[in-house]
Amino acid sequence: MAADERLDWLLLTQTPGLGREAQRRLLAAFGSPAAVLRADARRWTEVAGPAAAQALGAPPEDRLALAERTLRWLEEAPALRHLLPLGHPDYPDLLLNAADPPVLLYGQGQLHWLRTPCAAIVGSRHASPQGLDLAHDFARALAQTGVTVVSGLALGIDGAAHEGALDGGGGTVAVVGTGLDRVYPARHRSLAHRIQDQGLLLSEFPLGAPPRPEHFPSRNRIIAGMSLGTLVVEAAPKSGSLITARLAGECGREVWAIPGSVLSPQSRGCHQLIREGAALVEEPQEVIDALRALHGGTALPPPASPAPVVPTAVHDDTQAPPSDAQEDPLLQAMGHDPITLDTLAARSGWPVDQLLARLLTLELEGRVARMPGGLLQRRGRG
């Protein structure tokens, strides 16, 4: 795309007060951003209404400065930074056919991941250690099968899903709620750099856009819209993950949910989705099989005997060895729900000093994690 054409797309889409629907109507009527910008107020009003005409007729100095700054940003790393307007060959086909597609996307990273089958993995920012392991394991298995994992770069399940896809040697797309010159949350700066190198960062927000609350539901519609289906790993009843899942359902896409403990608040959102018709899944292969079935077995590469999935903590560089509850009576006593030390002592009958020593060993092996409030939980699904 020539610099002048890029400038026109930026000036149109960065016009304050001009919404996406009005932009799409103007483009449909005039054929290009340049033609929209050359038209007069009467024609703008006829096509998109007086508010759109007023927005386009405002002095362009502020949007011109931002557009020129964006062009410089693109020119600094032309192999990594991209503009994807409607009609661009790399614009995701599924998103184009979803409700309310973005008029312009900003990308940073490898565009070829947009030409692969995509599935979203989303969930709680306050995930349990077991939830993080599940998100990582499912993402890694999907990536090893040729599926690109889409998520939102948030703390918790999102970050674990991105890490799992990258660890599986596949691709991941992080759809963010800020401009691409910002990383939110800041704690994911190194993960964002890794995604830039091995996957793709994607946003509909211009440079400098801060993480406003209203940006995240908007981001969620992109995650749902560009994915064949959405997997929810853990979610509270009113979480943004449920918004993503419902948007996916409204687009006619698949929705899967992993059940959890009836005692865990982070499982209630998944249970709610299952009651509303989401497919209950327990293993990555169930999602992989569903994705294949969507296109008669042609959407994904043939199964290739992927490497064994090893549960890995996203906040730790240490890989947890497989656990075997049949060989460890303490893990059997612990079960899979969060548990207090006192309850574990009562269940196991172990003396406290012996119990603490064994728990320390299990923590160092990555088989048990400590949670807020003094709770303990087993890692992985073994």
Biggest sheet, spatial arrangement of strands? 1-2-6-5-4-3-7-8-9
Secondary-structure content class: alpha/beta
Query: Roughly what is the average pLDDT, rounded to an integer?
Result: 88
Q: If you consult CATH, what is the topology of the largest domain?
A: Rossmann fold
> How far is the first residue's CA from the last residue's CA?
52 Å
Shape field: elongated
* Gross CATH architecture of the largest domain: 3-Layer(aba) Sandwich
* Portion in beta strands: 5-15%
User: Residue ranges: pLDDT <50 for 5 or more in a row?
Assistant: 302-326
CATH class of the largest domain: Alpha Beta
Q: Would you mind describing this structure in some detail?
A:
InterPro entries: DprA, DprA_WH, DrpA_SLOG, WH-like_DNA-bd_sf. Residues 84-291 form the Smf/DprA SLOG domain. By secondary structure, this protein is of the alpha/beta class. The chain folds into three domains: 1-76, DNA polymerase, domain 1; 111-294, Rossmann fold, CATH 3.40.50; 325-378, Winged helix-like DNA-binding domain superfamily/Winged helix DNA-binding domain (Arc Repressor Mutant, subunit A). Helix content is 44%, strand content 12%. It contains 17 helices and eleven strands. The protein has helices spanning 3-13, 20-30, 33-38, 41-48, 50-57, 61-76, 93-96, 129-144, 157-167, 189-198, 215-225, 240-250, 268-275, 284-294, 329-334, 341-348, 352-364; strands spanning 81-85, 104-109, 118-122, 148-151, 172-175, 200-203, 229-232, 254-257, 279-280, 368-371, 375-378. The strands form two sheets. A nine-stranded mixed sheet has the order 1-2-6-5-4-3-7-8-9, sandwiched between helices. A two-stranded antiparallel ribbon has the order 10-11. Helix 4 runs antiparallel to helix 5, helix 8 (129-144) packs parallel to helix 9 and helix 8 (129-144) packs across helix 14 (284-294). The longest helix is centred in the first third of the chain and has 16 residues, at 61-76. The termini are far apart. Residues 302-326 have low confidence and may be disordered.
